[in-house]
Structures are given as structure tokens and as C-alpha cells.
Amino acid sequence: QANVEVKRPGILLGLLQLLLLRIKESRLGPNREQSEERLSTLEPGTEDDMLDAKDMLKRIHAAFDKERQSLSNELNELLELMVDLGIYPSKYQRVPMYEPGLTAQPLWSLEDLGDAGGHLANLERHWELLRDEALQLVKEHNWTIQEKGVWTRGEKTLEQLGRWQQLVFFGLGYPELPEEVCSSAPTMCSLTGETYNALACPFGQIKLSVLQGATHVAPHCGLTNTRLRAHLPLVVPTDIPPRIRVAEQIKEWKEGKVIVFDDSFEHEVWNESNETRIVLIVDINHPELTEERRNWYQTRLKVMGHDVDGPRFDLVEEDLKEELVNKQEL
Description:
The chain is an alpha+beta fold. The chain has helices at about 10-30, 35-40, 45-65, 70-85, 115-125, 125-140, 180-185, 185-200, 290-300, 320-330; strands at about 105-110, 150-155, 165-170, 205-210, 215-220, 225-235, 245, 250, 260, 265-270, 275-285, 300-305, 310-315.
């Protein structure tokens, strides 16, 4: 009798079967023998097959994420599978622009940040004056007043009700603020300008973030792990203190005390009070990012378009000037 070769499923079907097996095992108990064996025998396809597989899993992730309350177990199994496959470094750290080799931790202290920590401490020393000017800005230039290029929506895919607004002082792709804004907040404009130039963070922004009461910002990850994000709380409700979760750690803001976190880790925000929370957001380079890599990102990061919540970015694979020079030399 002739031997019949059993053809194994392609990588896309194989991953779907593996995901379903993992979900089934998670419901039955801790035993993962079948899925571990299936993973070890999974045969990768061509480069195009693997790209299609990653795209498929990311699409499933997006679908599960929209229903994370009812599909939390399924979402967790999917993310752990994507970590095992090397698509993400961890289930909490999922960014489109990932720099290998940088220390990954959700929260940081000022003492670990070198010169950048000193700049943040300087802002912290002026927090009361910055708070007064922030309140003046909200009073005189808030988002209900139609001033072009002043306030933007917070990320609209994360907060659907328009209760999160941002005023960007400095950042790639954002327009220069009108003079009347800085007339209302001269110290804030001066200090943030000095800080932005000193930090030289390619992905960096300095902005006011105003989150109204009874608002939840959905779980999300930032753009890259090459930066850290600092929050200087200026106005924090006291009836029900707002809080932020970064990976598995939860912090409450305290007025005048900087919190630094790696926003490449999944994070979400709750303001369950009836009052408004205002923080000054300052982005800094990851302390282990080399000058060479910082310059690499600086020359390749481009604005690809704009939306109501700000510009969209991407990395240009080759510097256009270098490409033109090479063509001229041929």
C-alpha cells in the first residue's frame, strides 16, 4: 500500500488552529502540552507568507481589542502567541517603531534620566506658576473658541466623546502657536521652549492635556520605545483621584510631582471625578538611546498627513538627499 503524504496546513491556517487550541487550553486548565507541541512543529512559510501571517494576527488583535471586556481571555492568549512568535517583545509593549536593546520598564525615576531628569525637575519647581497659566489658557483659549491651530482632540480612537483635548506647544508637524496664546502663558511658552530644544527628542512633544471628568482613555500603546513620557500634574481632582495604568502598575497623579513612564507599554487613564484633570506632557529620549540612533530617527521621521488629533508619522527608509546624491554619482 502506497504511503500517502499528509500535507501540513499553511502558516496562516496553522496559526489560526494554534490560536484556537490555546484558547481552548486556557479554559480547561494550565496544561499547554498540545499547543507547545503544535508551536514547535509549525513550519514557517515564505517571507511573504510570514508578513501575511503577522498582518492577519494584528487584524485579529484589533478586532479582539474592540471587545476586550468580553474577549479578555482570548485577547491575552493572542498577545502571548504573538510574543512567542517574536512579533511583540511583550504582551504589554506593542509599538510600530521598535528599537531593540533598550531597557524596558513601565515606570522610571528622575534620577535614572541624566540631564533630562534635571530638565523635568526644573519644570517641577515651577509647577504652581505653570498651573496658573494653564488655567488661564483654558479660560481664555479653550477648545470651544474657534482658534485655528490651537487645541486638538485627544486621540479620537481612544476617547470617543470629545472630552479629551490637547494644546501642543512643540512637536514635529504642529503649527507654531498664535502670539496671543503665549501672551496668556509667557512662562509656560518660555520654559517649554527651552526644554524642548534641550531634550532634542525626535518623537517628542510638549503639550497640555486636559481631560474632563467622567472620562476613560482606552488602553493603548505609544508610537515607539525610543522615548519616555513625563506627566507634570497641574490640576488634579481630589474627590475621586484620576489614575493611570501602565502595564500592570497603577499610579495616581499628585499635583507638582512628575510621573515618568514608557508609553510604549499599554496604558490607560480614568478620570471618574466630576472635575477636570490638567497635566503638562513632556517627551524625552530613552536614556539608553545613542546619539547616532537619535540622529538616524531625526533624519527619517516624516509627517505623512494630518487628522483632527494631530499629524501622522512614518519613517522614510532612505534619506532622500542621500538617494539623490547617489544617483548623481552614478
